[in-house]
Amino acid sequence: MIATPTAPTVRTVHSTDGTTISYHTTGSGPDILIIPGALNDAADYTTLATALAAHFTVHTIQRRARTGSGPQGPDYSIATECADLAAVRAATGARYIFGHSYGGLVALEAARRDPGIAKLALYEPGVSVQGLFPMDWTPQYRRFLAQGRPFDAFATFAISTGPAAARRNPRWLMSAILRLVFRGERRAKIFQLLEANLREHEQVGRLDDSYPNYREVSADVLLMAGGKSGLPYVAPAFDRLTEVLPSARVHTFANLDHFGPDHKGPAEVADTVTAFLLN
What is the pLDDT of residues 158-184, one digit of tens each? Predict the structure, then answer.
């Protein structure tokens, strides 16, 4: 019998450094944690969480620098994110993890530290191979933030890390596009997360070519990608991950891009994740 999803409940835990980490819970059944990507928060995964809640108790982590959780802190690193995840996992008992983009990188790093994680469902995790995840945008991005020019910072990031179509745009055009697309609360949230986005992607760059470490992951792993993603790092990362992960399979969504879980196709992603976790 399929459970009826319940209204999300917000709970909090404290990480090892004392920072408050909140998480949103809905549904019933086996517990799964959702780890949002960069420039995202828990609210962006509401549709995905609701779809999964038909079969699972879903806990969406509100990562550091998001409303309800504490700041990244001066010593922020991927290890900080893993400690936060471990605190939520201890509170919920969840053995299943879903991670999107940077959240997928966090999930992999957590799983190699914690053999209690049984299954990972990862959508285009932010794993850099041979420098294919670009980092040359960061100095200019940092300068724009210091100058109070958030749209120029955002445009610089979007051009450098996006698909080929985005990389062809001059910054002035990308900035104009972003001004049209991102408005109101959505714009305010993006601006709030621009500094955190920089520090998170610095961790992606620091971990470039560290994929051999994922031989230590004992969890069963589902790697998911969007067929229309167009991100140059995804295919090489999947090639390396399937070589080193003890148990991994790949699923491609032909009509989705990088934003499948949070925007373009959360129901479709939820169906695939559900089938993976229940079999």
Answer: 999 998 888 888 999 999 989 998 999
Which of 109, 128, 130, 129 is CA-nearest to residue 120?
109
Instruction: Please name the residues in contact with 109: beta carbons below 8 A apart, sequence gap of 6 or more.
Output: 78, 79, 81, 82, 207
3-state SS, residue 274: helix
Same domain? For 95 and 223 the reply is yes
36-66 pLDDT per residue, tens = 999 999 999 999 999 999 999 999 999 999 9
- Tokens standing for residue 190: 């993006």
Provide the angle, in degrees to the nearest 10, between the axes of the packed helices 184-206 and 138-146. 140
β-pairing, 220-226 with 248-253? parallel
Measure the CA–CA gap between 116 and 208, rounded to whole angstroms. Answer: 26
Same domain, 104 and 227: yes
Q: Tell me, what's the pLDDT at 193?
A: 98
User: Per the structure, how many domains does the chain have?
Assistant: 2
Task: Please tell me the total number of residues recorded for the chain in this structure.
Answer: 279
**Domain membership of residue 245 as a residue range:** 9-130+208-278
Same domain, residue pair 95 and 198? no
Residues 120 and 185 in one domain: no
Place of tokens 């049984």: 118
